User: Fold this.
Amino acid sequence: GAVAGMAFLLVPPDGQASIGLVMCLMAVVSALGTPNMIFPMAIVSDIADYDRLKSGENRNGSYYALRLLIYKAAFALGGSLGLYMLAAVGFDPRLEVHSDFARQGLLFTLVLLPNLLFVAAGIVLLRFPIDARRHAVIRRRIDAREARSLRGLAAGPSASALSE
Assistant:
């Protein structure tokens, strides 16, 4: 939804009338982009559960910390690269009139490149191997292992341990 909404930025009307339209469009794109904030956390949770099943260790905090680090690094890198790209095409926000090259560079930086990256990320996510069924199996196995561990703790030391 957000990718399609951003495509409308490629054809805004010229002049001051476009400011209100672009602001409304960006509000809609932001609302449609909400899953971009929710889904990555759910995927991190699935990965952390898979790791817990395989390793027996609960490293959820490490996974969430790594995800947050990557998120912040991507924002810093993306913003820096975007501003560098705008400078490279000669876009100057202080000017009232821009060359065609600067306008096209602005559209590429603001719309086309992010949308290409979103589509590429979507393709990668379509191949994510942990679906709802697999995650349910992972959770059942983790829960069963923890239940066995708790039963072992509740039973206390075994008879063979007491005789030693």
Q: What stands out?
A: The CA atoms of residues 43 and 125 lie 9 Å apart. Helices lie at 2-7, 17-32, 35-55, 60-88, 100-126, 132-155, 159-163. The chain is about 80% helix and 0% strand.
